[in-house]
Structures are given as C-alpha cells and as structure tokens.
Design goal:
It is built from 5 helices and no strands. By secondary structure, it is mainly α. Among the domains are: 1-59; 74-103. The longest helix is centred in the N-terminal third of the chain and has 80 residues, at 2-81.
Length: 152
C-alpha cells in the first residue's frame, strides 16, 4: 500500500507540476493576447481618428466648393447681364443673319459686301488723321434710338 501511495503522490506531484506549467503558459498567452488586443484597439482608434479628420476636411472642402460654385454662378449671371456681353451676343446674331441672307438672297451678297467695305473704310478713317481728333471734342449724331428700338 505504501508503494501505491508513493505512486499516487508522485503522479499527483507530476500532475500539479504540469498544471502549474500549463497555467503559466496560458497566463503568458492571455497577457500576450491582451497586449495584442490593446495594440489593435489603439491602431483602430488612430485609424478612425485619421479617417474622421480626412472626412472632416472633405466636408469642409465640399462646402467651400459649393460656396465657390454659387459665387461663380452669380458671376456668370452678372457677366451675361453686362452690356458688353449683350452687345457681343447681338453682334453674333446679326452676323449669323447676314451670313444666311448672303447664302439665301441672291441680290443681297454683292450689296452687303459693298456696304461692309464702305463701313470698314469709314471706321478706319475715324482712327487715322484729323477726323478722330475732332470726334473726341465734337459729339456726333448716332443711331442710338434705332438701336434701342431694336433691342426692345
């Protein structure tokens, strides 16, 4: 019976040693896992913070671009309402109409070319010589009333 007791005691001591070793290993694995989890949590928090900052910057840039877009729309409307733009549009319309008449009306082409050359010559004369000097000081009669009526 003594031998059996010694055998049982040796087995119990061996089981206790194995249990202690396994417990130490599991505690080491648990602490390693806890450190890894903390590291991953920190990385996740950093990533979320970076993404939040990036998203915030994108929202700010989006708002900035929206206001800039609305300002540009207002500017475009303002530019389209300025007299210079309306006059250019009117000139483009007149040019298109003159081109159509030149093609469609057989007698219009030569008369138009003659009138155009005379107008160009008169226009050039207004910038060369003594005539432009006098035009600066003496107002000339214009067809402004005719132009106003055409616009209305």
């Amino acid at each position: 019976m003594k031998d059996m007791f010694y055998g049982f005691a040796a087995g119990a001591v061996l089981a206790l040693v194995v249990y202690i070793v396994m417990k130490v290993k599991s505690l080491h694995i648990i602490s390693t896992n806890k450190k890894e989890i903390e590291k991953l949590k920190k990385m996740l928090a950093d990533k979320m913070e970076i993404e939040h900052e990036g998203l915030q910057k994108l929202k700010e840039e989006n708002e900035k671009l929206k206001t800039e877009n609305s300002n540009l729309k207002v500017s475009v409307q303002t530019w389209s309402q300025k007299p210079d733009r309306r006059e250019l549009q009117r000139l483009q319309i007149y040019q298109t109409a003159a081109d159509r008449l030149t093609i469609n009306a057989p007698g219009f082409g030569p008369a138009w070319q003659t009138a155009l050359k005379e107008s160009e010559k008169e226009f050039e004369e207004t910038f060369v010589g003594i005539q432009p000097f006098f035009k600066k000081f003496i107002p000339t009669k214009t067809d402004a009333s005719v132009i106003k009526e055409l616009e209305d």
